[in-house]
């Protein structure tokens, strides 16, 4: 068995301290003074100490003042009753009757002792009930503190719920704005697609025109070659052919200039197409970012509606 950490001297010192304060010594007052221990063990050791120290310590038996008053009153009443009974018995009884009366007196004394012990037990029970009541009061204080903490936590939760509701309204507003921006970007993208389509059609027309001019230039080169051949074959037609050649060269220069201008226009159109494609890609990138943002907002305000 594990030895108790509370020594006999600790119990004796606590009992003497209680007596010095003018209070009655009992198991619960000893436990309160020491801070731990079983009340029945503490009062048993204190009682043994009192008995071992004789009559000088006997006066310090741990009987509460209320119990002492009850016992004293009860004993006085019993003693008065017994004295009266003895007087009556002394008058009317003989020696044998007196012997029987003495036995009855002894029985009454034993009954008085039993009742005194019962009062001591009642006092111990009262102390236990008082201690239980104190424990219940302490528990009530703890429960009240817990209730206050729960009320505070509930208030915080309600405040957080209001904040979450406000945040959800803000997110809904942002989501609506994002959707409007997405719709606007879709419309802008469609417009850019239409412009790009028209530009591509224009480029195709210019390419077809350039191809025709190139073919015409080839034909003119072939005609010029034929004219030169004719000039070499017939000197008499040289003057006429030279005039034709000069005209063809002029026409060819004009065509070359026209081809150069058309090529510049084609290059300009191709640049515009590249710019349109770059702008379309930029719009597509903005649309993708907006879709990602909308998806992030929707996932943040997903099931449960919680937002931290």
Which segments are poorly predicted (pLDDT under 50) over 5 or more consecutive residues? Answer: 55-61
Distance between the termini: 56 Å
Instruction: Give the CATH class of the domain at 170-300.
Output: Mainly Alpha
Element-by-element helix/strand order: HHHHHHH
Number of helices: 7
Radius of gyration: 61 Å
- Biggest sheet statistics: none
> What is the CATH fold-level name of the domain at 170-300?
Helix Hairpins
CATH architecture type of the domain at 170-300? Orthogonal Bundle
On the 0 to 100 scale, the average pLDDT is 78
Beta content comes to under 5%
User: What structural class should be given to the helix and strand makeup?
Assistant: mainly alpha
How many strand elements? 0
- Overall morphology: rod-shaped
Helix content: over 70%
Brief sketch in words of this structure:
The chain is an all-alpha fold. It is 88% helix and 0% strand.
Question: How would you describe the overall organization of this protein?
Answer:
This protein starts with 7 loop residues before the first helix and ends in an 8-residue tail after the last helix. Helix 2 crosses helix 3 and helix 6 runs antiparallel to helix 7. The chain is rod-shaped, with a radius of gyration of 61 Å. Among the domains are: 1-62; 170-300, Helix Hairpins, CATH 1.10.287.1490. It contains seven helices and no strands. The protein has 308 residues and is mainly alpha-helical. Mean pLDDT is 78; it is low at 55-61. The longest helix has 139 residues, at 95-233.
